[in-house]
Amino acid sequence: MSHELGRLEDLPKDYVQDLRDLNLVPLWPSLRGVLPPNIPNRQTQATHWPYQTLRPLLIKAGELTPIEKAERRVLVLANPGHGLEKMQASAAIYLGMQLLMPGEWAPSHRHTPNAVRMIVEGEGAYTTVDGEKCPMSRGDLILTPTGLWHEHGHDGTEPVIWLDVLDLPLVYYMETSYHVNGDRQTVVPGRGDKQYAHGGVVPTKVFERSKKAYPMLRYAWSDAKAALETLAADDELLEQVQVTYTNPETGTDAENILGFYALMLRPGQTLRLPARSPAQVFHVIEGSVKAQITNSNFTIVAADTCCAPGYEAVTLVNLQQDKATFLFIADESPLHRKLGVYENRG
Ligand code: 1HN
């Protein structure tokens, strides 16, 4: 059925110029490019960012650039398939490793893109989001959803490093990305991670319609890990031991555009994740994994990050024979589902 469509070179040059002068373009030479057969063109390449090589360069950034000159001291994990200057991990996902040194403060602002942070290293830092002071510990997930004030501080003694995951590429593409600077926030009492940390029971005030669109801003790793271990023990046949970070009041994804998950690989387990439309990011919290993504075979160890394009199956092999491995995953599923383009091709 497939036949060649006419090319731009097939048209008289003066005709093409006449079109261009009137801001007109013929569709047929570009039709297959924007609408390829069966599977989309993806610029997102399987890419691995080992922590061991990234960390010294991030620490060096701390020496080279004072926080006042950076506001946020971040090395962006850029996918070469998109071009490094685009600062994209995938079509919709931005990733960055951020460093905060003891005593430093990253001032309050808010912006339209949604963010989360996955804490990688160090103790004593905190993020204040919408007045809620969220302590940062390894493996914790902290939300800074669209429009909420947030700032970072550090009362500890060692560098603190975390992985930022934002939907910035999409929000920027939509021409809706901007920020507003603010004053230091007044910390208010109470924390969602305490109020909502026990699955199945929620504060009764929920039924009086909470005023907060994002009632839970901090998801402690100790709770997520315990949930995974309980899930694995309760169903020994369950292959994909995975939990989704949700909004505890609505039961839907924690944020609107990107989805966040924690996955446990049992000792020695090989897990094949089906080919689905969303691109995804894998970050190792504990353990080590062989990740087979398209033609790449990455060995990802604790604190490493890698990404996979959409429409590709991914095989994860736990390289630990005697221990579970734990991963944090971010993907574009909520976006794809809302837009009606989500696919699972098995
Ligand atoms: C941002 O606000 C933070 O608040 C981190 O820590 C990374 C990347 C792009 C745009 C805003 C933060 C960001 C960011």
Itemize the secondary structure elements and their pairings.
Elements: H1 13-21, H2 31-34, E1 47-49, H3 51-64, H4 67-70, E2 74-76, E3 94-100, E4 105-111, E5 115-121, E6 125-129, E7 132-135, E8 141-144, E9 150-154, E10 160-166, H5 168-173, E11 179-181, H6 192-195, E12 218-219, H7 221-234, E13 241-244, E14 259-265, E15 270-276, E16 280-286, E17 288-293, E18 296-301, E19 305-308, E20 312-318, E21 325-331, H8 333-339
Antiparallel strand pairs: 1-19, 2-3, 3-10, 4-9, 4-11, 5-8, 5-10, 6-7, 6-9, 8-12, 13-14, 14-21, 15-20, 16-19, 16-21, 17-18, 17-20
The structure holds 1-hydroxynaphthalene-2-carboxylic acid.
1-hydroxynaphthalene-2-carboxylic acid (1HN) binds at residues 72, 74, 96, 98, 106, 111, 115, 150, 164, 166, 168.
